[in-house]
Amino acid sequence: MSNSSLFLPSTFPRAPIQNGLGRYLNQLQRITFKFCKSHGSSKGMRDFIENDLIEFAKANAGVVVYVKPRRHRAPVMVAEYLNGERHWMSCRGQSNEEIKKWVDLMRGQNANSSSVRLRKMWHTDKPSIQGPWTPFTHKNPELNFAVFPDQKLSQPMDVGQTATEKLMEIFKQQKISDQSLDSKQAE
Prior knowledge:
The chain is an alpha/beta fold and 187 residues long. It is 30% helix and 16% strand. A hairpin with a 4-residue loop joins strand 4 (76-81) and strand 5. The protein is elongated, with a radius of gyration of 29 Å. Its main location: mitochondrion.
C-alpha cells in the first residue's frame, strides 16, 4: 500500500442505492459557480456562464444552480450531492470547454465516486506488484481509440466450431462407433 492512500478517508465498498431501478434520481443536488467579474483567470468561467449556463439549467431542472461573483478570487465550482458530500474544484485558467466537461462529469457522477480508500475484509503482507485486476485488464488496446459504433468491432468473432457443433460431431462419432460394435457383435 502506498503512503498516498493513508490520508484518504476509508470505507468498505457499498453497493449503490438501486438508483435507476424504478426511476433515476440525479445525485447532483446543487452546483455553485464562484468567479471574479474582472480577473483574467475567471475568463473561462465567465464564458461558460454567459453562453452555456442557461442551457445546462434548462436541461437539468432538478439541479439548483447558484452564481456567486467574488472580487479578486480564483474561480471555483462547488457541487453538492444528495448524500451531503461536497466536491470543490478550482477552475483557475480553464477554458469554457473544459468547464463544460467538468460540469457534465459532476452532473453524472455519484457522490461516492470521490477519492476514497476502499478497505477489504482480507489483508496480505505481500500485495501484487501487477496492480488490481479490472475488466479492462486484458482488453484489446484498439478499444481506447475506437469511435462507436464501429463496424470492425461489431462483427462476430470467428471462433471456428461452436460448442453445439462440437457436441453434434461427438454424438455422430459415438453413434457410428456404436453401430460398428453392434455389427461386430452380430457376426
